[in-house]
Amino acid sequence: MTARIERIDLNTDALLIENTTDLLYLTGLELSRGVLGIAKEETVLFVDGRYFAKAEREAKCKVRLLEGNAVFDWLEARSVKTVEFDGAYTSYDRYLSLKGQLKSQELKAGSSLLKEMRVIKDEREIEALKKAAALTWQGFQYIEELLQEGISEEELAFEFEFFVRKNGASGLSFEPIIAFGENSAYPHYRAGKARLEENQIVLIDVGAVVDQYRGDMTRVVFFGEANPQLEKMLEYTKLAQQKAFEAAVIGAKFGDLDRAARAVFAKEGIEEFFTHSLGHGIGLETHEFPIIRAEGADKDVVLEEGMVFTIEPGLYRPGLGGVRWEDMVLMTENGPIRLNDV
């Protein structure tokens, strides 16, 4: 954690970090509220009484009680003139509060301050992500065996959570997407009361959290006979994922992966049914930087060793159903590695 803080390149005299995920990344502490003040030659974590004793025991930096004007008195004592905050996270009300409490300091907004640091995972993070991916896969295998006529989407979602929690997960990456039949045509569907019928498609998108890091995968199962149209859609989706996977080489741009997948769909005249981005970074949060899309803000982000992201093309036909095939991918010096289905 100390090494991570030392890697931060200050653009101002001091930096205030309040994003709870960034606080976890830099301190190792799960906090619902706190302020990490980083200045030249000193870092201080400000927490309220709920976390003070734990922070004093575990934090690798100075800890002070978050009360009154403690943060601003610290800035004043260090003769700080300019203070940077996370403009992508801080609400306007919080900005006005900060501005009103600062004395002589100038307040400057940064944007997603740690996203470029967090996108490259270290060995400990990669190990945690591998565990999360493996347990997610095991959970999928478990509920796949439970597929039977009459079982509900909600029941399968519960069984997945029960299984992964019993086997080491601290929680779920997101509410499970278990979709039967036509419900699979909605990418962000949530498990409901629908009950499985013979010859239906089943879309399962799930994720388990292990050691604070998140798993994420999607699979499609045909319960009984497969609908020929959906079967063909799945064939193209798997091919699109493979083409994107093959395009994932160090030095390539993330936009290239999306283009590789969409080219498969475009060739078949079905690109209009691929309605979301190809994937996203993953780590302490399920959806992290970068978002993988050919025309998106992150399209020119270059693939580097240590990045972990998802590749999840899909096709959705309302009234018929949808398919998606998703894996977590780790970039290594020797190329990409799938972390699911291993």
Helix count equals: 10
Q: Largest sheet, described in full?
A: 6 strands, mixed
The average pLDDT score comes to: 95
Going by CATH, what is the homologous superfamily of the largest domain?
Creatinase/methionine aminopeptidase superfamily
What is the terminal separation in angstroms?
30 Å
Overall tally of structural domains: 2
Provide the gyration radius in Å.
Answer: 23 Å
Sketch the topology as an H/E string, one letter per element.
HEHEEHEHEHEHHHEEEEEEHHEEEEEEE
The CATH topology annotation of the largest domain reads as Creatine Amidinohydrolase
Percentage of helical residues? 25-40%
> What is the strand tally?
19
Given helix and strand content, the structural type is alpha+beta
Order of strands across the main sheet: 4-3-2-1-5-6
Net shape: elongated
Strand content: 15-25%
Low-confidence stretches: none
CATH class of the largest domain: Alpha Beta
Give an overview in words.
This protein is of the alpha+beta class and 342 residues long. It has two domains: 2-118, Creatine Amidinohydrolase, Chain A, domain 1, CATH 3.40.350.10; 123-338, Creatinase/methionine aminopeptidase superfamily (Creatine Amidinohydrolase, Alpha-Beta Complex), CATH 3.90.230.10. It has helices at 2-6, 20-27, 52-58, 70-77, 92-101, 115-118, 123-144, 153-166, 228-247, 254-267, and strands spanning 14-17, 35-39, 42-47, 62-65, 82-86, 106-110, 171-172, 177-180, 200-206, 208-210, 213-214, 217-223, 279-281, 288-292, 308-311, 314-317, 321-324, 327-332, 335-338. β3, α3 and β4 form a beta-alpha-beta unit. The longest helix is centred in the middle third of the chain and has 22 residues, at 123-144. The protein is elongated and about 70 Å long. The model has no long low-confidence stretch (mean pLDDT 95).
